[in-house]
């Protein structure tokens, strides 16, 4: 077996090394291309924010579902557009005008640029689905629409008609404001946000509903205590009521975003659950019938008690009469026995007299 010279071995190793390096570079380039093609993170591992994710300062509607997020999004668009057309009219999108007839090219270009910016602002859809940052939770961003009024009108109609218009949507909560999910930022934002409802001379009974998802820095008890203290400082007449509050302060924390809203009829509309709110009037009528039945049963029971008392009194009187009759009978028996003994005594005396005479 011939030995390979040292220089040849060094040259062969260099060739193998260069081949391996070229193959590894091609594999890495393929991975980068596949990540960019399918929406993976850019170089450096940072995901670009803006436009498609829930961020502080947005308004909209939080929607929860049980899996089937795509179908839930379709139902949400259909339901929100239906009631938005009733409240605000149909959605109108501006169409760009043709400026090819203008003679001045620079003026035409400037006009097109201004028209492009104006049309992009006008063509912003009133509902846009964004990534909420949590599973089974959707966020529909609203534009030039009051989400609190819209969601309340939906639940009011479902509650009064009893018609269920969705199969996948569970809860629908309005988001009237949002901020960063840090205690200092939350209190600073809530100090101005809660004033229309709780600042003197306005006052109401309230409760605080807190929910946190994918966030470990916000402690439930601490946040609730700090918000309750803030509401009390706005007006001492504001009272906590957990049974039937006039207003409910909703705090939904998702990752680093805090979603806030103040809504009425939270208990009446079954915590804004679309599946349960459609059963509201029927359940209330049944409960009212049960309540109306209860006084009737109480009256009948009272009548029965009174009847039992009268029966007991009558039976007591009958027992006394029986005892009196028994005593009278015993007296009659005793008198008859006494009469018999007297007759016997009279007969004995007559027999003695007859014997003496003989």
UniProtKB/TrEMBL annotation:
Top-level division of the source organism's lineage: Eukaryota
Listed Pfam families: THUMP
Residue stretches of biased makeup (Polar residues): 298-317
UniProt record, GO biological process: tRNA modification
Annotated GO MF terms: RNA binding
Region described as Disordered: 25-55, 280-358
Database matches in InterPro entries: THUMP_dom (IPR004114), THUMPD1-like (IPR040183)
Domain called THUMP: residue spans: 157-264
Keywords: RNA-binding
PANTHER family, alphabetized: THUMP DOMAIN CONTAINING PROTEIN 1-RELATED (PTHR13452), THUMP DOMAIN-CONTAINING PROTEIN 1 (PTHR13452:SF10)
Subunit note: Interacts with NAT10. Binds tRNA.
Job of this protein: Functions as a tRNA-binding adapter to mediate NAT10-dependent tRNA acetylation modifying cytidine to N4-acetylcytidine (ac4C).
Protein family according to the UniProt entry: Belongs to the THUMPD1 family.
Protein name, as recorded: THUMP domain-containing protein 1
Protein source organism: Hemibagrus wyckioides
């Amino acid at each position: 077996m011939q030995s390979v010279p040292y220089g040849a071995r060094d040259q062969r190793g260099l060739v193998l090394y260069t081949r391996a390096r070229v193959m590894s570079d091609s594999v890495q380039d393929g991975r980068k291309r596949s990540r960019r093609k399918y929406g993976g993170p850019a170089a450096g591992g940072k995901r670009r924010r803006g436009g498609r994710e829930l961020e502080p300062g947005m308004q909209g509607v939080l929607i929860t579902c049980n899996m089937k997020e795509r179908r839930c999004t379709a139902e949400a668009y259909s339901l929100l557009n239906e009631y938005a057309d009733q409240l605000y009219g149909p959605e109108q999108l501006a169409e760009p005008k043709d400026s090819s007839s203008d003679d001045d090219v620079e003026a035409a270009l400037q006009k097109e640029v201004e028209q492009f910016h104006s049309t992009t602002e006008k063509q912003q859809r009133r509902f846009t689905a964004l990534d909420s940052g949590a599973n089974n939770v959707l966020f529909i961003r609203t534009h030039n629409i009051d989400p609190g009024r819209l969601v309340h009108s939906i639940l009011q109609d479902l509650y009064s008609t009893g018609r269920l218009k969705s199969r996948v949507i569970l809860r629908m909560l309005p988001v009237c404001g949002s901020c960063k999910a840090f205690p200092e930022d939350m209190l600073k934002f809530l100090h101005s946000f809660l004033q229309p409802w709780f600042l003197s001379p306005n006052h109401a009974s309230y409760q605080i509903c807190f929910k946190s998802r994918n966030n470990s820095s916000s402690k439930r008890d601490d946040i609730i205590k700090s918000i309750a203290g803030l509401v009390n400082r706005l007006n001492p007449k504001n009272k906590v009521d957990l049974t039937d509050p006039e207003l409910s302060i909703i705090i939904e924390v998702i990752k680093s975003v805090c979603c806030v809203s103040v809504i009425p009829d939270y208990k009446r509309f079954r915590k804004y659950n679309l599946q349960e709110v459609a059963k509201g009037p029927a359940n209330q009528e049944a409960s009212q019938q049960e309540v109306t039945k209860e006084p009737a049963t109480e009256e009948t029971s009272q009548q029965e008690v009174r009847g039992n008392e009268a029966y007991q009194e009558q039976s007591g009187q009958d027992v006394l009469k029986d005892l009196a009759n028994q005593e009278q009978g015993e007296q009659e028996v005793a008198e008859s026995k006494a009469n018999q003994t007297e007759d016997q005594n009279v007969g004995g005396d007559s027999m003695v007299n007859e014997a003496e005479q003989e």
